[in-house]
Amino acid sequence: MLVIGICGGSGSGKTTVVQRLRKRVGTRAVAVLPHDAYYHDGANLPADIRADQNFDHPGSLDNDLFARHIDQLRSGESVRRPIYDFTTHTRATKTERIDPKPVLLLDGVLLFAVEEIRRRIDLRVFVDTPDDLRIARRMLRDIHERKRTPASVYEQYVKTVRTMYQQFVEPSRAFADIILPWESHNDTGVDLLVHRMRAELERK
User: Which of 19, 98, 138, 173 fits a 20 to 30 Å CA distance from 12?
Assistant: First the structure.
C-alpha cells in the first residue's frame, strides 16, 4: 500500500486535491482517511466549553487511533473510522467502514506535525495556498457548512487558528517531499501525483 499525506493550512484546498486524485485514479484503487474525523469526542463537556476548545492543536485529535487505523489498513484489515459532527463538536454513534486499497490518501492540517503519523506516510505533499485565500475559504465553509457566524469564525481564527498555523503547520512543510502551489488549481501537480499512484498500481 502506498500512503500519501496531503497537508496544508485550513482552507488550502487539501480536500479538493484528494477528490481530484481519487476521481482520476478511481475509487476502487484509492481509500481516503481524513485526519479531522478523529477529533476527540466532546460529548462529555458543557456546550460552551466544548465549542471553545483549541481545535488547531495536535492534541485535539486522537492521533493514536488514527495511526492504528493506518497500520491496520496497511495490514489488509478494514477499519471503522469515526464520524465527527463539526456543528456540535461530537462524534456520531455510527462509524464509516474503510477498506484497504492499493493507495491510501490521508488528508489533514496537522498530518506532518505529529511524528507518529508523519513516519507512516510514504509521500508527503504540502498544499501551499496564500493566506488570504485560505481565510476566505474557511470563512465561507464554516458559515455555510458548519452554521457558524462570521464573528465566531473570525474570533476563532485570531484566537487559535493563526497562532497554531504558525507554530505547527507552517514549520511542518519542511517534512514535505512535494510542495504543491494551489491558488485555484495545479493540473501539472495533480498529473504528477496521479502518475505516481498509477505506477504503484502497475507495480501491484
Answer: 98
